[in-house]
Design a protein that fits this description.
The complex is a heterotrimer of chains A (112), B (131) and C (412). By secondary structure, chain A is α+β, with helices and mostly antiparallel strands. Helices cover 23% and strands 33% of the residues of chain A. A seven-stranded mixed beta sheet of chain A has the order 5-6-1-2-3-4-7. Classes of the chains: A alpha+beta (112), B alpha+beta (131), C mainly alpha (412).
């Protein structure tokens, strides 16, 4: 499946609740078998805040720009790829409830 | 880990739309699309990527994207924007680099090769199109 | 000091000359000087500060990542908005190439009295030959240095023995001259910004840095280029405004034709002055043609990910070569339609001013990216000036089309 088709799909938990649109995937390069495996999903948050790298945490500042784009609240969460039951074609279905699957992006980012 | 030293990569910030260099560090195109596949164990992995206007046009969308895709399909001998398997990638940090040189990748950047061989290298001082 | 170190500032000078004293600026500065004296000189000062900030940022990014400024546009804006930026930049720079070619042709007209239209295809051919045959650094040095003969305008200011108090008063009065209105003052201010703080200066400077092979150790060289080149460009621009003030303003002469722009130099320094001015204009517009032409070629190549520039033989950057050559050809054709280069330039620089935010934003973002830049990311000063410049360019982007219509291109 195409990466650009996946991005934007609604991520739905096991009870049918929508966590938000899929905004990004964290990919791991496993040196041993040369595979690039998806480890994390990043769900929700403003599209442009993602595009500019603010949610990811790599772009810090300038202060004014970050405030404007990110907004005062951050609704982005991270979900481990192991929690996914089905990838597409119309949605990404999780095998767990949102409460268990979703963690704050900052927490997940520590393992990135 | 601080953002300066991460081992994972972001699909949209580090892979999609990034410049691709060939084995000789020459720019050949951009990652216009990424292909993924779910394995037996349910994990999703990147299987390859596509370079070229046909794939790009699909992402740009609208009339412009459609025209882009159509033009590239017409110009291509075989499949436009064919899939480059993930094994072709030598390195993805700091820049996406392929193992092979452009001359060994007949399916990529056909227009560059054609223009180089048939037009530009024929003009005095144009140099050699082959690397 | 080796010669290459001595001349290591020429990329900056060339970028600045192309940006600050090309044919568009020559006309804009003369026009502004004739109507408003030095009352818009502060705009030039701000434009210098803004472009220095972004040139340094894009130069630093290019040195650390080998990625020039337009490469960043697609990466951060995505393929769709990156394409919008590309089309905008292409249209603006395409029009400017046409105007610059007319400028080269005009400098030949100055020396030979034969109409510039005859010289346009000659100019196109000369440009093509030079850009094809000569390495990037040689081209840069020739035009970076010969362009300095535009300093004749600074000399001319002196030679005209102006009332310095009057010049100072003009420079420190940021309001329209008697008989002129605020909308026109604002519109011409925007025109100046569009002419002087042009994105192609940044695209060219950063791509030139990649052509030079800048690395993290090249910061001193990169910054020398910025510090020497752009303020020099600003100084020359203000000198052109000043001589126009001294010669045209008292007589109420409006600048409507390219030939008028050198008149003050002739008045001050006679035939010698004219010769220097002609050489300077030739070099500045030639440099600007190279800059705008290559910048457009770079933008297109970098959007699609093609190889570009002169680091390798043209046959190994075939798409870039083909596109750049086609653009030159189209510009020659456009110039031959006898479209008035002045009007074309005014429209082009106003649209360029509207595109500034799209060009600056990706650079500012990547300069703050920890993953990409690491320890070389922006400090507080770069961010402060960068944000202010971006904010101002957003305001200009909104005000420009409104004022263009409202003042009917500055004539209303």
């Amino acid at each position: 499946m195409r990466g650009s088709d996946l991005l934007g799909l609604p991520v739905v938990d096991v009870s049918g609740a929508v966590l938000g649109p899929l905004r990004d995937l964290r990919i791991d390069g496993d040196e041993r078998d040369g595979r690039l495996t998806v480890r994390w999903l990043v769900v929700g948050g403003r599209e442009w805040a993602h595009r500019f790298g603010y949610i990811d945490g790599r772009t810090r500042g300038p202060w004014l720009l970050e405030r404007l784009l990110r907004g005062s609240s951050d609704s982005a969460v991270a979900v481990a790829a192991s929690a996914v039951a089905q990838w597409g074609p119309d949605q990404v279905l999780l095998s767990e409830p949102a409460g268990a699957a979703a963690v704050p992006v900052e927490t997940a980012a520590r393992t990135w | 880990m601080s953002p300066d030293h991460r081992s994972t990569r972001s699909l949209r910030l580090d892979l999609l739309d990034q410049q691709v260099l060939d084995g000789t560090e020459r720019p050949v195109g951009r990652v216009d699309e990424i292909e993924l596949e779910a394995g037996q164990d349910g994990t999703l992995a990147v299987t390859g990527f596509r370079l070229g206007g046909a794939a790009l046009g699909r992402r740009v969308g609208g009339a412009v994207g459609h025209a882009m895709t159509g033009t590239c399909r017409r110009l291509a001998d075989d499949e436009a924007s064919p899939l480059l398997p993930i094994e072709s990638l030598k390195d993805w940090s700091p820049r996406l680099t392929l193992h092979r040189a452009l001359s060994e990748l007949p399916e990529v950047a056909g227009l560059e090769r054609w223009l180089g061989k048939h037009v530009v290298s024929r003009i005095p001082g144009g140099g050699d199109a082959r690397v | 000091m080796s010669t290459s170190k001595l001349f290591s500032f020429t990329l900056g000078t060339l970028s600045a000359i192309g940006g600050f004293i090309d044919i568009g600026d020559l006309v804009a500065d003369a026009l502004v000087g004739a109507r408003f004296g030095l009352r818009l000189a502060w705009v030039t000062v701000l434009a210098v500060v803004g472009i220095m900030c972004y040139a340094e940022m894009s130069g630093r990014i290019a040195a650390v990542t080998k990625r020039p400024a337009f490469d960043l546009a697609r990466s951060r804006l995505g393929p769709r908005y990156g394409l919008v930026a590309l089309v905008g930049a292409f249209l603006v720079t395409g029009l400017l190439v046409m105007a610059e070619l007319s400028g080269i042709a005009f400098s030949f007209q100055l020396l030979t009295d034969i109409s510039y239209l005859f010289w346009v295809p000659v100019a196109g051919l000369v440009v093509a030959l030079f850009l094809w045959a000569l390495p990037f650094e040689i081209l840069e040095r020739i035009y970076g240095i010969v362009g300095l003969s535009m300093l004749v305008f600074v000399v001319a200011v002196w030679q005209l023995h102006p009332d310095w108090g009057h010049l100072w008063h003009s420079a420190t009065t940021p309001s329209p001259t008697p008989g002129e209105t605020w909308p026109i003052y604002a519109f011409l201010g925007i025109t100046l910004v569009g002419a002087q703080m042009t994105p192609y200066e940044m695209f060219f400077f950063s791509s030139g840095g990649v052509e030079h092979g800048w690395g993290p150790r090249s910061f001193a060289e990169m910054r020398t280029n910025v510090i020497v080149g752009f303020p020099l460009g600003g100084l020359l621009a203000i000198a052109i405004q000043a001589v126009a003030l001294v010669v045209f303003y008292p007589a109420g002469i409006q600048v409507e034709h390219i030939t008028q722009t050198v008149l003050p130099v002739v008045v001050a320094l006679g035939k010698v002055g004219l010769a220097f001015a002609a050489v300077g204009i030739f070099a500045a517009t030639f440099g600007a043609t190279m800059e705008t032409l290559f910048a457009t070629g770079y933008d297109i190549a970098q959007y699609f990910g093609w190889s570009y520039g002169k680091l390798q033989p043209p046959a190994q950057a075939a798409r870039f070569t083909a596109v750049t050559a086609s653009l030159l050809f189209v510009s020659v054709a456009l110039a031959l339609t006898t479209l008035n280069p002045i009007q074309v330039t005014i429209v082009a620089v106003v649209f360029s001013a509207m595109l500034l935010p799209l060009a600056f934003l990706p650079v500012l973002l990547v300069a703050n990216d920890h993953v990409v830049m690491g320890q070389y990311r922006n400090g507080k000063l770069s961010n402060a000036i960068g944000v202010v410049t971006l904010g101002v360019s957003c305001l200009i982007s909104v005000a420009a089309p409104v004022l263009l219509v409202y003042t009917r291109g500055g004539s209303g």
